[in-house]
Write a structure and sequence with these properties.
The protein is of the alpha/beta class. Helices cover 41% and strands 24% of the residues. It has a single domain, classed as Vaccinia Virus protein VP39 (Rossmann fold), CATH 3.40.50. The chain is built from eight helices and seven strands. The protein has a seven-stranded mixed β-sheet with strand order 3-2-1-4-5-7-6, sandwiched between helices. It binds 3,4-dihydroxybenzoic acid and magnesium ion (MG). The site of 3,4-dihydroxybenzoic acid has 4 residues, from loops.
């Protein structure tokens, strides 16, 4: 292992705080064997989500974009025993892999994978959720945010992966993913019901960012 100093430090941090573990490494192996893209969050990013969920005592969690269930496991493990997580995945093959991941992690009873486009599924969901993690189709991030605000309790958290896109949010890219991230960040920054920040991240997953928002208390 030798990449940039940022990658090397990321591996150093992960080796300290996210010790190798069969369940999670098996998930990544099975995902690769099934041909899924290697765009899972990193172990350190997973630990960060886990800590945010624990610190906010999240008991009802919603995830948009399951992929292989890697981030789902981190979030699912942060919940108390009576916690419930719903994760939405558009690709039925990915959803199958994710169900296998959750079973391997012993989380199949508390974490449900719903197959469908998040934009189709979200209108039928009832809140409130304590934490929503957005990691699905980047183009639809602004629309996801509208639903997330409706579905998150006051004091709850809305998190979103991939909102910096290697810095492309600075320019005038015509990439729909970048356009989506920029519109999302703008909406997040100016939303009257939210207090938010974007955390720039560099490391083994390249250069990107995680948005963190808290829904203001009622009144
Ligand atoms: C990419 C990374 C992600 O975390 C994701 O959710 C989607 C795409 C990427 O690097 O292309
Ligand atoms: Mg992502």
């Amino acid at each position: 292992m030798s990449g940039s100093i940022f990658e090397d430090v990321d591996h150093y941090i992960d080796s300290l705080f996210t010790p190798d573990e069969d369940v999670l490494s098996d998930v990544l192996q099975r995902a690769a064997a099934a041909g899924l893209p290697d765009i899972h969050i990193s172990p350190g990013q997973g630990k960060f989500l886990y800590l945010l969920a624990k610190m906010s005592r999240a008991k009802r969690i919603l995830e948009l974009g399951t992929l292989a269930g890697y981030s789902t496991i981190w979030l699912g493990r942060a919940m108390p025993e009576d916690g419930e997580l719903t994760t939405i995945e558009i690709d039925p093959v990915h959803a199958d892999v994710a169900r296998g991941s959750l079973k391997a992690a012993g989380l199949e009873a508390s974490c449900e994978v719903v197959v469908g486009s998040a934009l189709d599924v979200l209108p039928g969901l009832t809140g409130p959720f304590d934490l929503i993690f957005i990691d699905a189709n980047k183009e639809s991030y602004p629309a996801y945010l509208t639903h997330a605000v409706r579905l998150t309790r006051p004091g709850g958290l809305i998190l979103a992966d991939n909102v910096v896109r290697r810095g492309a949010v600075l320019g005038n890219s015509m990439d729909p993913a970048v356009i989506g991230a920029k519109a999302f960040n703008q909406a997040l920054a100016s939303h009257p019901q939210l207090e938010a920040i974007v955390l720039q991240q560099v490391g083994r997953k390249g250069h990107d960012g995680l948005a963190i928002a808290r829904v203001k208390d009622a009144g």
